[in-house]
Write a structure and sequence with these properties.
143 residues, alpha+beta, 22% strand, 2 domains
C-alpha cells in the first residue's frame, strides 16, 4: 500500500513544498548512511511513483532504493524500476532513479529459481562467496 512518510514531508520549499492535504504527493527528505535522500512522490493517472536522488554526484545504491521502497510501499509490495526504450527516455536529473507501481495491477515476478539459489546463511557462507571469488579469479566477472 502506497503511503508517504509525513514526518519527512517538506512543507516550506519554494517550489516543492506541500501541505499534508496534498496526500501522496510532495517532497520527502531523510538521512541515510550519512547522506540526504530526496524523494518526490506522486500518485495519479493509475500510477504510484517515487523519484529518488541523494546529495552526492551519483545515483542511489540498491540499499537506498530498497529503503525508499519499504518506506513508501512496505516490505510486501512489488515495485518496478523501468529501463524503457531509448527513444522515450526522459532524463531531467542525471543521478535520479524512479520506483513505479501500477494501481490495481498485480505485478508478475519471475520464479525465484531463475534469479538464483535460495541459500541458508550457512550455505551462503559455504558456497556463495567462494563461487563469486572463483568467477573473479577466472575473470568471468570483475572483482
Amino acid at each position: 500500500m502506497f503511503q508517504v512518510p509525513n514526518q519527512y514531508r517538506i512543507r516550506t520549499h519554494k517550489l516543492l513544498g506541500t501541505p499534508d492535504s496534498a496526500g501522496n504527493n510532495g517532497l520527502f527528505v531523510f538521512g541515510f548512511k550519512g547522506y540526504q535522500v530526496n524523494c518526490i512522490a506522486s500518485d495519479g493517472e493509475g500510477w504510484e511513483h517515487v523519484s529518488v536522488t541523494i546529495n552526492r554526484k551519483r545515483t542511489p545504491d540498491w540499499e537506498t532504493m530498497g529503503l525508499v521502497k519499504e518506506i513508501f510501499w512496505g516490505e510486501d509490495s512489488t515495485v518496478i524500476q523501468y529501463h524503457p526504450p531509448k527513444k522515450v527516455y526522459v532524463n531531467f536529473h542525471p543521478y535520479c532513479l524512479h520506483l513505479w507501481r501500477p494501481v490495481g495491477v498485480s505485478i508478475p515476478l519471475p520464479p525465484t529459481k531463475l534469479i538464483g539459489p535460495i541459500l541458508s546463511n550457512a550455505e551462503r557462507e559455504k558456497f556463495g562467496f567462494p563461487i563469486i571469488e572463483e568467477m573473479q579469479k577466472s575473470r568471468i566477472i570483475k572483482p
